[in-house]
Specification:
Radius of gyration of chain A: 26 Å
Helix content of chain A: 25-40%
CATH topology of the largest domain in chain A: D-Maltodextrin-Binding Protein, domain 2
Order of helices and strands of chain B: HHHHHHHHHHHHHHHH
Helix content of chain B: over 70%
Number of strands of chain B: 0
Distance between the termini of chain B: 42 Å
Largest interface: A-B, 73 and 73 residues
Strand order of the largest sheet of chain A: 11-16-12-15-13-14
Number of helices of chain B: 16
Radius of gyration of chain B: 26 Å
Number of strands of chain A: 18
Oligomer: heterodimer
Structural class of chain A: alpha+beta
Largest sheet of chain B: none
Number of domains of chain A: 2
Number of helices of chain A: 17
CATH architecture of the largest domain in chain A: 3-Layer(aba) Sandwich
């Protein structure tokens, strides 16, 4: 380079640098952002803008693992039945059914179709349910739906029925078949499991929507299927019209989601934590709180842990003030619970009759000087304030509490190692909304034996009661047994019910979504004016 | 004797020969040095990302297995993810994947890591690039202007005010700045979207949140550098020739700011590409910053490793690019001066 070149006017050099950078930026912007303005909502739109908390991990309903998977599953796949108001079961793909604790016969309606036009026949339904029940599918929900026994599923296309037989009585089958995990996957999806997981098996969907666009970390678009006609028969019918397009952006930040709602960028969204209160009395919005889980203290009842002592567990129950706990865990947004099952679960105890009253002096007699390893996760309250509250209440009664407030992944890992904890706070999601779903962490084979029982105490007495309930055809009698189970669990403090984990479904005027029995059903999102 | 003198002359170091050695063109030597640095960075990043990521407490299999998974299901997931294999075999697979441009698949979604990165990178790049452009456009003239106006102790209030304002803005944490921008310009005035990347105007607030701090830094540096240059003899001489203020400043002052400003801008850009986590979270901007945070929370080892590797290499490439630009603008930079790695 000669001197003349080095003396090139500096302004030109700067202009070159900034032009190159600006061009690159604008090119990138053109590749990523659109140029549409935010929808105004109301009558002028056929689109609902909503949010995912995170990317769905799979579009295979049987393998769904979190709320976002369930949300996508609700839009993409129909189930045989749905849960309606007051824990009623309403038709979806099945038009009618006859169910006993060991058998279910479902008549499949004529309206069901797949996204590739294939009709949803009994064979299609049976194949999908066999896939769900197969150990190879590794669904976390198989036992909740069909119980621990062997399942036989047969189709009769001429009679239009699917028959499900279970070797061990399982009264939860009907309710279980309303779960997203049992969503009917069409033949195209079963033939292409990887495509099903990735959402690329275009003919896999039996639900009202098909996946039209997938941009990881950014957004997902669902298009209403023109040939879809098997809407769930809710009573009363849901008001409004389904959106032609549902756009779900990925946004884990509840404050940002609330901002998007308030500025009209989103129409319907779930808000968590303190941001829920931003919509208190806010004009132009409807907000409904719903439980996303029930919080209870759970104990490691394996040999060697001090929690094997029922008196110690009861003493922990006696130190807790549930209202103070709810304040710490949810900023006062939740409510005290008196059962490990949330109040919308059929047969859940909703009064304080069984819980031990707060009595610090009595608790101190047992807890004083006891060393207790408390494993907590930071997700309950700001930085795990719920754990901090319980541990401080125990310390007040003289316990020597070693609290480890860790992130969710570490908690999931360490809770599988019994030597690392004596007690923990469990936030049970209970996606199926069944009593067994709530009980499953307290009874049966321990986690180290391949079961779901975190306590390590198989509780044969409770197991026998559950078996009795599952074999009982009369609902009222079954509820009586379940109430007895809850009483035993709470009195022996196998679990200490504490409070609810809540979220808030929030919609701008002109949009709505239904919450049935404490569970939001995303396929009920509607444009209402 | 003549021969001896000729040999000495050959051996005698010229102004540049001592450091560079004979034979290779300066640009080739420059390129080789940078290539060596790049390869070293790549090797270190590959090894460090592989070894460090598993030190994060928590079992990825437990997270991937999801809510309600039994120990047996978690074990099965661990096998599916290949976490049961010895570390050495995992490393060999990892390294083989990298050199064949296969960064693996996400533990959580099963998606290819390269796809995760390619879908998120443009979002991070666009706010980072736009921010650095705006930083240069605003901070350089502002810094120069203040230095020129306050030369020789004139307008002390401007000098003082400039220092206070830039110092204050720089001290405001990004999450506070981001929240203020949202409250004022999105929620209250409704001028721009509060979050997300759905529309072109979504760029405005995240870019603003990202540029304020660096703009203050560069403006202060430019002001200081300009003040030094303005005291140089050649600037006084230029003034003495009555070349005019604009010509003097653009031709004799501005070129002397390029080295410092570009070097600093390169470092800031590299930091913004990897460190826009806060801004991306406040504005729900779907970039790599959010991607790596999510991946860490989910113990998604392949995604964490992939993003760190790509960001590390990008930072190295940006620094090399700055060196190249500086060498093009002033060949003295070819010789391994202050910017040599």
């Amino acid at each position: 380079m000669n001197r003349a070149e080095t003396r090139r006017p500096a302004a030109r050099r700067w202009a070159t640098v900034t032009t190159v950078l600006t061009t690159a930026t604008l090119a990138l912007a053109g590749c990523t952002t659109g140029n549409a303005s935010a929808p105004e909502g109301g009558a002028s739109t056929d689109t609902i803008n909503t949010t995912f908390n995170a990317d769905p991990t799979t579009f295979s309903p049987a393998q769904g693992r979190n709320a976002d998977d369930y949300m996508a599953g609700r839009l993409l796949f129909d189930t045989l039945v749905r849960r309606g108001t007051d824990n009623s079961i309403v038709p979806n793909l099945a038009s009618s059914w006859e169910v006993t604790p060991t058998r279910g016969v479902f008549t499949i309606g004529e309206n069901g179709t797949c996204s590739d036009g294939t009709r949803v026949t009994p064979t299609v339904v049976a194949d999908s349910l066999k896939n769900f029940a197969s150990p190879d599918t590794n669904s976390n929900f198989r036992e909740l739906v069909f119980g621990p026994g062997r399942t036989t599923i047969t189709a009769d296309d001429q009679a239009g029925t699917v028959t499900i037989d279970v070797t061990e009585p399982w009264a939860d089958m009907l309710q279980g078949l309303s779960m997203t995990a049992t969503g009917i996957v069409c033949p195209d999806g079963l033939a292409d499991p990887e495509g099903l997981k990735a959402g690329t098996a275009e003919g896999a969907f039996s639900g009202p929507y098909a996946l039209a666009e997938k941009q990881s970390g950014v957004k997902y678009a669902f298009k209403l299927r023109e040939d879809y006609a098997s809407w769930p028969q809710y009573e009363p019918a849901i008001a409004g019209v389904p959106a032609a397009t549902i756009n779900a952006s990925v946004n884990a930040n509840s404050s940002a989601v609330a901002n998007e709602l308030l500025t009209g960028t989103r129409d319907i969204a779930i808000i968590r934590g303190k941001d829920m209160s931003r919509f208190d009395g806010q004009k132009g919005f409807t907000a409904e709180k719903f439980p996303i889980g029930s919080l209870f203290a759970l104990f490691n009842e394996r040999e060697g842990s001090p929690s094997t002592d029922a008196d110690l567990r009861r003493s922990v129950a006696r130190v807790v003030d549930r209202n103070a706990f709810v304040q710490a865990a949810t900023g006062g947004q939740g409510e005290p619970y008196y059962s490990f099952a949330h109040p919308s679960v059929p047969c859940a105890v909703t009064d304080a009759s069984a819980v031990l009253p707060q009595d610090l002096a009595a608790a101190a007699e047992t807890l004083n000087g006891e060393k207790i390893k408390f494993l907590g996760t930071q997700v309950f309250g700001p930085n795990g304030a719920a754990n901090t509250y319980v541990s401080e209440a125990m310390r007040q009664a003289g316990a020597d509490v070693d609290l480890r407030n860790v992130d969710l992944a570490t908690w999931s890992t360490d809770s599988q190692k019994p030597e690392k904890w004596d007690m923990t706070l469990m936030g049970a999601i209970n996606a199926g909304g069944t009593m067994y779903g709530a009980l499953s962490v307290l009874i049966g084979p321990s986690t180290e034996s391949g079961g779901l029982n975190w306590t390590g105490n198989e509780n044969p007495e409770l197991e026998a009661l559950v078996a009795e309930a599952m074999a009982e055809e009369d609902e009222a009698t079954r509820c009586g047994i379940y109430r007895e189970i809850q009483k035993v669990v709470v009195e022996d403090a196998h679990a200490v019910p504490l409070g609810s984990l809540v979220a808030q479904t929030t919609a701008r005027d002109g949009f709505a979504v239904s919450v049935f029995n404490g569970q939001r059903d995303e396929s009920t999102m509607r444009i209402t004016k | 004797m003549t021969a001896t003198i000729a040999t000495e002359a050959k051996r005698a170091p010229g102004p540049r020969a001592g450091r560079r050695g004979p034979g290779l063109h300066p640009w080739v030597r420059f390129g080789l040095r940078r290539l060596g640095g790049l390869l070293l960075s790549f090797a270190v990043l590959t090894i460090v990302t592989f070894l460090i990521v598993p030190l994060i407490p928590g079992d990825p299999a437990a997270v991937a297995a999801g809510d309600g998974a039994s120990a047996a299901q978690i074990d099965r997931m661990r096998q599916e993810l290949g976490l049961e294999q010895p570390l050495l075999i995992q490393f060999v697979d990892y390294f083989r994947g990298i050199i064949t441009l296969d960064l693996g698949t996400s533990f959580i979604s099963g998606e290819e890591v390269s796809h995760v990165i390619f879908s998120r990178f443009p979002f991070t790049a666009q706010i980072a690039l736009l921010a650095i452009v705006l930083v240069l456009v605003i901070a350089v003239p502002a810094g120069m202007g203040v230095a020129i106006l306050t030369r020789g102790g004139r307008l002390p209030w401007l000098d003082h005010g400039f220092n206070v304002v830039t110092g204050f803005i720089y001290a405001v944490p990004q999450y506070v700045m981001g929240t203020l921008l949202v409250v004022v310009f999105a929620v209250t005035l409704g001028w721009f979207p509060a979050a997300g990347a759905a529309t072109l105007d979504s760029l405005v607030l995240p870019t603003a949140g990202l540029m304020f701090g660096p703009a203050c830094v560069i403006a202060r540096v430019v002001r200081r550098e300009t003040a030094v240059v303005l005291d140089k003899d050649y600037v006084r001489t230029a003034r003495g020739w009555r070349l005019g203020a604009a010509r003097t400043h653009l031709r004799y002052v501005l070129p002397n700011l390029i080295t410092t400003t570009l070097t600093l801008s390169g470092l800031i850009l590299a930091a913004q590409l990897g460190g826009a986590v806060v801004i991306e979270t406040v504005f729900a901007w779907p970039g790599l910053g959010q991607g790596i945070v999510n991946a860490i929370l989910q113990r998604d080892y392949p995604v964490i490793r992939g993003i760190i590797l790509v960001l590390g290499l990008l930072a190295t490439l940006i620094i090399i690019l700055v060196d190249v630009v500086l060498a093009v603008l002033d060949p003295r930079n070819l010789g391994g001066g202050s910017h040599d790695a």
